[in-house]
Automatic annotation (TrEMBL), chain A:
One of its GO terms (biological process) is transmembrane transport. InterPro entries: MetI-like (IPR000515), MetI-like_sf (IPR035906). It is found in: Cell membrane. This is ABC transporter permease. The chain crosses the membrane at residues 6-26, 80-99, 111-135, 155-173, 219-244, 256-280. The lineage of its organism: Bacteria, Bacillati, Bacillota, Bacilli, Bacillales.
UniProtKB/TrEMBL annotation, chain B:
It is a multi-pass membrane protein. InterPro entries: MetI-like (IPR000515), MetI-like_sf (IPR035906). This is ABC transporter permease. The chain crosses the membrane at residues 7-30, 83-108, 115-136, 148-170, 209-230, 268-290. The keyword Nucleotide-binding does not apply. Keywords: Membrane, Transmembrane, Transmembrane helix, Transport.
Length: 287, 307
């Protein structure tokens, strides 16, 4: 029951947020606050959902049904989101925890520290610049920027999207590694002659895990924020297309559905990552 | 232990000082008037008439070049500097001020405030850029409001929506300090709530607050950049409908970056690179400062890991 309540709560929050452009407008030189517009639109939306359709939206000049498009859009967004978060978690655990003791990995982290002074969305931009000049040099096509054709490949947007969360998670994990590595129980374990991998999995990993889980949600939030930029700049057809359409006016129905879809997808991604971590523990830690 | 020279701190300090100076003096240093436009012109080179037209690449007259419409990029950046620097600072100060006071008072309570925890929880997982965009999208684009009130509105919205995260970290720290022996001693000596908050807890949080302030500045700049990607500029967006072009009214750096982003694909790459470099330097200055401060404060507690 609580889950149903939470979903309803999220739905209401999404309606309030998406109603922003309708609520706050300017008429002449005054800011007008008109929440009643949102209420009527929301009631209309609920009626449409009750009637079995999700309403329509405009893509350019064409009116299209949201229900027809939402599934393929959601699938491509899910692929992007899930693969990027998996990459971030894997890279974070591998370089932040298991390989941290090698100096070359620590040097690599210094380099990443330097890179992370640049905001994520700028890094995405610079990667596009790099891909364009790479094409000019070698005529190997990594990205397609034409909005009418499909993206050339899937891995490029996934890699771009995973930059932000990887940097964040790697920082968090290696910070905790340094803190936990200085604890007395690590010293004890080493003094007893336990193997380094044993100490890493049984003593360090188990103590890092709560922090990893706590920051996993934050990681997903960062990925979602970057998702908007990646889908928008690389013309990936995904759920954000419902929210920021490049040519059409702001559309309330589509925005609510898009945002709701993204939130539900991020919950799904979170649960899947938890499941993967559980499997990892069963297979590698507890054998 | 020998202290290492903290170069991030010093570089960050110097760059931030330069930025502040640029923020104050920028508009007066600008080589051209804000509305100066380079027009089509022809010069005679070796007996041939050569027509030059904007965008002009970087040259002696235009150190950073001009944009597609002939505006001098250096002038635009210098005029935008005060907005970039002072809007971010204002938002960060408001966030930290309100957040600190709220965090202290919520953290000192005997019972945990479950209503606040749920607000904190829900808010920390929402990319803040989404609510800000939706709240301001209806107001900012082609608005008839004066620029000053648009800037004020932006500051207000971003400051209020970002306060919960500051409150969260101050609250957590307050709850830790509340349990210490000396606070207990102060309570048993009869210190009141205000006495404990302002004489015993706040001084302990000084370093934390400074770091939060700088990291908030970085977060706000990134947010402004993100909003710029979606054509929402600080102080108003001017949109023409045929062709659809978005221009920043205040020439704030993140806004310039957003409005010139399509030039990344063309040959006139300097139009995109000039605001990009300015913006990255601004963010980088504060990032270095944050890193330097963190290193400085943590030096005394640091332990080397055994593995």
């Amino acid at each position: 029951m609580t889950y149903v309540k939470q979903i309803i709560g999220i739905f209401l929050l999404v309606i309030v947020i998406c109603g922003g452009p309708l609520m706050l407008t300017t008429v002449k030189e005054e800011v007008v606050f008109a929440p009643e517009e949102v209420v009527t639109r929301a009631i209309y939306l609920v009626q449409q959902i009750a009637g079995g359709s999700l309403g329509t939206y405009y893509l350019g000049d064409y009116e299209r049904s949201i229900a027809e498009d939402i599934i393929p859009f959601a699938i491509s967004t899910f692929e992007l989101l899930f693969s990027s978060v998996v990459i971030a978690v894997l890279a974070g655990l591998l370089f932040g925890l298991f390989l941290q003791r090698f100096w070359i990995v620590r040097k690599f982290q210094r380099l990443l520290d330097l890179v992370s002074t640049i905001p994520d969305f700028i890094l995405i931009f610079l990667s596009i610049l790099a891909a364009v000049s790479f094409y000019k040099l070698t005529s190997i096509r990594i990205i397609t920027l034409s909005p009418t054709s499909d993206a050339a490949n899937k891995w490029f947007p996934i890699v771009l999207l995973s930059i932000g969360p990887t940097i964040f998670l790697l920082k968090v994990i290696s910070l905790k590694y340094v803190q936990i590595g200085g604890e007395d129980y690590i010293k004890t374990a080493l003094a007893k002659g336990m193997g380094i991998w044993h100490v890493l999995t049984h003593h360090v990993y188990k103590n890092i895990k709560p922090f990893l889980l706590a920051d996993l949600k934050k990681t997903i939030a960062i990925t979602v924020a970057n998702l908007f930029v990646v889908e928008y700049l690389l013309n990936v057809v995904g759920l954000t297309r419902f929210i920021f359409s490049k040519s059409a006016e702001y559309q309330f129905n589509a925005a609510v559905m898009g945002l709701m879809g993204i939130i539900l997808l991020s919950i799904l991604v979170y649960l899947l990552i938890r499941a993967i971590l559980y499997l990892f523990e069963r297979i590698l830690v507890y054998k | 232990m020998q202290k290492r020279f903290n170069w991030p701190l010093w570089t960050g300090c110097v760059l931030v000082t330069l930025l502040l100076l640029l923020g104050i003096t920028g508009p007066y240093l600008a080589p051209y008037e804000l509305d100066f436009q380079e027009k089509l012109s022809s010069t005679v080179v070796n007996g041939k008439t050569v027509i030059t037209y904007p965008p002009l690449p970087p040259s002696a007259e235009h150190p950073l070049g001009t944009d597609k419409w002939g505006y001098d990029l250096l002038t635009l950046l210098l005029h935008g500097a005060p907005y970039t620097v002072f809007v971010t600072l204002a938002i960060a100060f408001i966030r930290v001020f309100i957040g600190t006071i709220m965090g202290l008072y919520i953290g000192i309570q005997e019972k945990t405030q479950t209503w606040w925890l749920s607000v904190e929880n829900a808010w920390s997982y929402m990319p803040i850029f989404i609510p800000v965009y939706f709240l301001l999208a209806g107001v900012t684009i082609n608005s008839e409001l004066p620029t000053a009130s648009l800037v004020a509105l932006f500051i207000g919205v971003v400051a209020i929506l970002g306060t919960p995260s500051v409150t969260a970290s101050i609250r957590q720290k307050t709850e830790q300090i509340k349990e210490t022996q000396y606070v207990l001693a102060a309570t048993s000596l009869g210190a009141g709530r205000e006495q404990i908050i302002f004489r015993h807890i706040l001084p302990q949080l000084k370093e934390q607050i400074i770091i939060i302030l700088v990291t908030e500045i970085i977060a706000i700049m990134t947010l402004m950049g993100l909003l710029g990607m979606f054509d929402l500029f600080v102080g108003g967006t001017y949109m023409t409908t045929d062709p659809v072009i978005y221009k920043s009214i205040t020439n704030e750096w993140a806004g310039l970056l957003g409005s010139y982003r399509s030039f990344v694909y063309g040959n006139a790459i300097w139009i995109f690179l000039s605001p990009l470099i300015a913006f990255v330097v601004a963010v980088g200055a504060f990032t270095l400062l944050a890193k330097g401060l963190r290193d400085q404060f943590e030096q005394s507690y640091n332990r080397t890991p055994f593995i």
